[in-house]
Design a protein that fits this description.
The complex is a heterodimer.
Chain A (H helix, E strand, L loop, with lengths): L2 E12 L2 E13 L4 E5 L6 H8 L8 E8 L2 E2 L5 H7 L4 E4 L3 H4 L6 H12 L4 H14 L5 H4 L9 H13 L5 E5 L7 H17 L3 E6 L2 H7 L2 E6 L2 E7 H6 L4 H8 L39 H5 L5 E4 L2 E3 L16 H10 L1
Parallel strand pairs in A: 3-8, 3-9, 6-7, 7-8
Antiparallel strand pairs in A: 1-2, 1-4, 4-5, 9-10, 10-12, 11-12
Chain B lengths: L3 E14 L4 E15 L4 E5 L6 H8 L7 E6 L2 E2 L5 H8 L2 E4 L13 H11 L5 H14 L16 H13 L5 E5 L7 H18 L2 E6 L2 H7 L2 E6 L2 E7 H6 L4 H9 L49 E4 L2 E3 L5
Parallel strand pairs in B: 3-8, 3-9, 6-7, 7-8
Antiparallel strand pairs in B: 1-2, 1-4, 4-5, 9-10, 10-12, 11-12
Classes of the chains: A alpha/beta, B alpha/beta.
Chain lengths: ~350, ~325
């Protein structure tokens, strides 16, 4: 097991009060596996990534375990964390323009983690940097080393970001919306590059995205998040073919699909509850069309659907879940065959 | 008669390059001809910098077109006086991408929605009030929310307000510039549904500008694909999506990630980046990235030809 996150909870201070951003998030990433974390704005997917790297604002309260190769790094000191960041775990951010330093050359920025983590001579580093730039498919690598980010296009910048992340051959790569800011033809190039890197290394990848298309394309397993909690988790094929949580179903229904023109799209009524003002039971209950009495009072645990496929919805409680006497199997039937 | 007929529209901007101010011309829109029929939607797709937004803005004369003709209901729009334009804008409205930036944060929704009516001197105070209340319900907000300010609404609700504002004057044509790009997918679907409903109800025409191929496919009747200021392909949605004639359209469609893990498709990966619009390649603008490019492509500017009935593409090889 490469990464084992257990009961990760995060609270941030806002207007003098702590608001829960992540609530008991647990998941695993195996070696060589790509795990997608999907959800809409504010669901906590980016905060999950930042928590793993402990790139959090001051006064953030983080609880739970982050086991990286059986070592809990959740309580590591700053100094110990620095040994891991950029070395064992790297991160790629959404906007390559704001995450690169405009005052430093491409070469200097890639070199940085090599200086920190590797005992290399200047010449060795230079060779490595040029090789990294070539590996990520950039032309004129020797000259690029001395160029600045503003001289590059968006796609090239994102390739530089990937080169920086790959410099120390990390075991875990966290990608936060790596292609969201890019045009579709450039996105295709970057996704292809990432697929290649994945085949060549045995790196675990966490792919954070809002784009179900990207998930379907690159991920082995998917985690769906809603309002700071994981609501469903499963292998990619299973999740797309047999989504069980009403939120996942709603999300997939609302995507316009090629070949279905001018039909009414599925949509989810209402909006996400605000952090700090979460309902008592299931956080989706307010917007769900299958809400039962229990949904409003008790937080649903993850129920097993199949091996590796779990869903946090009372519809799948084998004990019957509801005390209302609502015919559960009917609800389930409509949920599944919607 | 078509509602909107744009012929050979050009929108060129002069920019200064560098410290000494060497002037270059950016051909943001370079000879575009499109037609929008009553009650129909024309989708405009393309990547950043292809000129799709500039096209929308120059049709409304928010930026003065350099050359070409824009006919709305048969009447020439270019060269109209400001007064005539004001009248015309009742019938042509725009919805912007960013619902956060396009609503005045200091005004209540009521004030925002009433503004177009006041500007155009329509109705008495009471009539205006009634109209605002009627429309706000049509777009799925409550009357009691009219006194709220934009920040009290979510992104999707704000975009609905933007649409309501565009609808206040009962226009015939709405130019929607990336209206759902800033929204989450479940909210995006609400707004798309609303736009389709309103279209049917009011027989509206849309020019729907977007970089999202699946959204454009969903809402449009016809679609124009733009690349570096030019329309490279234009036809009915079905034709363009099922049988794309231009290599760029083919690459775009194949690059689109499909939300279906079973669908493994042959992907055309384009090499390189989009050339700068201030320094476009010679001949066919796409030849630098085109997998089918030959020597002629660098020399000949391919005309938009009818490849099959009603299906136009600008490529000498297809």
């Amino acid at each position: 097991m490469l990464l084992n996150v257990k009961d990760l909870s995060l609270s941030l201070k806002k207007n003098g009060k702590y608001a829960t951003i992540l609530d008991h998030v647990s998941f695993q990433v195996e070696k060589g596996e790509t795990v997608g974390i999907v959800g809409e704005s504010g669901c906590g997917k980016s905060m999950t990534a930042l928590s793993l790297m402990r790139l959090l604002p001051e006064k953030a309260r983080l609880n739970g375990e982050i086991n990286l190769l059986d070592e809990n790094i959740a309580n590591y000191s700053k100094r110990k964390l620095e040994k891991i960041r950029g070395n064992q775990v790297s991160m790629i951010f959404q906007d390559p323009l704001t995450s690169l330093n405009p005052l430093q050359t491409v070469g200097t920025q890639i070199e940085e983690s090599l200086i920190l983590h590797r005992n290399m001579t200047k010449e060795e580093r230079r060779t490595r940097v040029v090789k990294l730039l070539k590996d990520v498919g950039l032309p004129r690598a020797e000259e690029l080393v001395n160029e600045y980010p503003h001289q590059l296009s968006g796609g090239m910048r994102q390739r530089v970001m990937i080169a920086i992340a790959m410099a120390c051959e990390p075991q875990l790569l966290i990608c936060d919306e790596p292609t969201t800011a890019l045009d579709v033809t450039i996105q295709a190039q970057i996704l292809e590059l990432m697929g290649e890197i994945k085949r060549q290394t045995q790196m675990g990848i966490i792919m954070i995205t809002h784009d179900m298309g990207v998930v379907a394309e690159v991920c082995d397993r998917v985690i769906v998040m809603y309002a700071g909690k994981i609501v469903e988790e499963g292998p990619v094929l299973e999740l797309f073919q047999n989504p069980t949580h009403p939120y996942t179903i709603g999300l997939l229904d609302s995507i316009p699909k090629l070949g279905q023109r001018k039909q009414k799209l599925g949509s989810i009524p209402g909006t996400v509850p605000a952090p700090g003002n979460m309902p008592a039971g299931c956080r989706f209950a307010e917007r769900c069309r299958h809400t039962m009495a229990i949904c409003r009072t008790t937080v649903p645990p993850m129920f097993d659907i199949k091996t590796g496929h779990q869903s946090a919805c009372w519809l799948f409680d084998e004990k019957g879940g509801d005390q209302d006497g609502v015919v559960r199997s009917d609800e389930l039937e409509t949920a599944l065959h919607h | 008669m078509a509602l909107l007929e744009v012929t050979n529209l050009k929108q060129h901007f002069t920019i200064k390059k560098g410290f000494m101010g060497e002037k270059t011309i950016v051909k943001a829109v370079d000879g575009v001809s499109i037609v929008i029929e009553e009650g129909q939607t024309l989708g405009i797709v393309g990547e950043s910098g292809c000129g799709k937004s500039s096209l929308g803005r120059s049709i409304l004369r928010l930026a003065e077109p350099t050359e070409g003709s824009i006919k709305f209901k048969g009447e020439e729009v270019t060269g109209m006086t400001a007064k005539q334009m004001k009248e015309l804008r009742k019938e042509m409205q725009i919805v912007f991408q960013d619902p956060y930036a396009s609503l005045n944060p200091r005004n209540t929704v009521r004030t925002i929605l009433e503004a177009p009516l006041i500007i155009h001197n329509i109705g008495t105070r009471k009539e205006r009030r009634e109209k605002v209340e009627l429309l706000v319900e049509k777009i799925g907000l409550r009357r009691d929310q009219l006194n709220n300010f934009p920040h009290e609404f979510s992104g999707g609700q704000r975009q609905r307000i933007g649409i309501a504002r565009a609808l206040m004057l009962e226009p015939r044509l709405i130019i929607a510039d990336e209206p759902v790009s800033a929204l989450d997918v479940s909210v995006q679907s609400q707004v798309l549904n609303l736009m389709l409903e309103l279209q049917q109800e009011m027989n509206l025409s849309y020019m729907f500008i977007s970089h999202d191929l699946s959204v454009v496919q969903h809402i449009s009747d016809k679609v124009a694909v733009m690349y570096l200021g030019k329309v490279v392909e234009i036809s009915d949605v079905e034709k363009v999506y099922s049988d794309p004639k231009h290599p760029y359209t083919r690459a775009l469609l194949s690059a689109l990630p499909v939300p279906d893990p079973l669908q493994k498709k042959e992907r055309i990966i384009l090499q390189g980046d989009l050339p700068s619009p201030s320094n476009p390649p010679s001949g066919c603008p796409f030849h630098t990235r085109c997998p089918m490019a030959t020597k002629e492509c660098a020399e000949i500017v391919p005309p938009l030809e009818e490849k099959t009935p009603g299906h136009f593409a600008a490529c000498i090889h297809t």
